[in-house]
Amino acid sequence: MYRLKETSSGSPLHDTVPDRDVIVTPGTTTPLTITDPFKAAKVLLQAKDDKTGKILAGSTVNIGIGGKTLLTLTTGRSGTATGELPVTSRKTEFWVKQIKAPADYDLYKPAKTFTAGPGAPVTVTVTNAKTATTPNPGPSDKPTPQPTGTPSAPAERPGSGGIGGAKPTGTPDVNSSPTGAGPAGDTTPTAPAGSLAHTGSDATVWLLGGAGLLVAAGGGTLIAVRQRRTDGSDWNGSHES
């Protein structure tokens, strides 16, 4: 029995096979077939805040092919985690799904896909939205309205004349003329008799007298017209009243 150990695959894309035992029968030829696998893809997982880009610890994801999970990673304080994924071709498609969100963040439910090649590094980034918090309702800033009482009757203003505008008792009539001399303290000197100051007063007396005569004449005319209408007789202007 011999021990087979592959030291090099001779390809940058392939890895070596694990060591194994080989039985060789003396005097016979024993064929050996070695199939070198593709080198594993090196995956770097990152978890970040979807708004600020802040790195997040405590994000756990599963990575796999089809319905099979191949790798589980959890980000540390640096917000990253690393691992190796076995690949079956030069381009192998994987899925990644978050199973635990960082503290104070919502779980990213949809699954994402990515492609990795043999021995090639690949970075997978998972973003999370911060959990919305409902603010506690605080006291209202609006002042509480005070109850309105029954309005009282408006106070009567001095000199308003009371209800209905009646003139208060004892209020002097500004239209009446005081009897006798002028107001107290009036020091206006009286014009002497025969001066020009009496000319206007005398003319006023004559005008008033003329107005009285006109009123009397008009009264006679009214009586004559009224009499004509009462007895129905004709009046030619010479009828004596």
Could you give the topology of this structure?
Layout: E1 2-4, E2 20-22, E3 41-49, E4 60-65, E5 68-74, E6 80-85, E7 92-100, E8 112-116, E9 121-128, H1 199-231
Parallel strand pairs: 3-9
Antiparallel strand pairs: 1-2, 3-6, 4-5, 4-7, 7-8
Polypeptide structure, described:
The protein has one helix and nine strands. The protein is an alpha+beta fold. Among the domains are: 41-128, Immunoglobulin-like; 201-231. The protein has a four-stranded antiparallel β-sheet, with no helix packed on it. A three-stranded mixed β-sheet has the order 6-3-9, with no helix packed on it. A two-stranded antiparallel ribbon has the order 1-2.
| Uncertain ranges | 160-168, 170-187, 191-201, 203-208, 213-225, 229-233, 235-241
Oligomer: single chain
Pattern of helices and strands: EEEEEEEEEH
End-to-end Cα distance, whole Å, is 179 Å
CATH architecture of the domain at 41-128: Sandwich
| Shape summary | rod-shaped
The percent range for helix content is: 10-25%
- Kindly provide the radius of gyration, computed on alpha-carbon positions and rounded to a whole number of angstroms: 63 Å
Number of strands: 9
Strands in their spatial order, largest beta sheet: 5-4-7-8
Q: Sheet bearing the most strands, described? A: 4 strands, antiparallel
Tally of DSSP helical segments: 1
**What is the SS-derived class?**
alpha+beta
| CATH topology name of the domain at 41-128 | Immunoglobulin-like
What is the CATH class name of the domain at 41-128? Mainly Beta
CATH superfamily of the domain at 41-128: Immunoglobulins
β-strand percent reads 15-25%
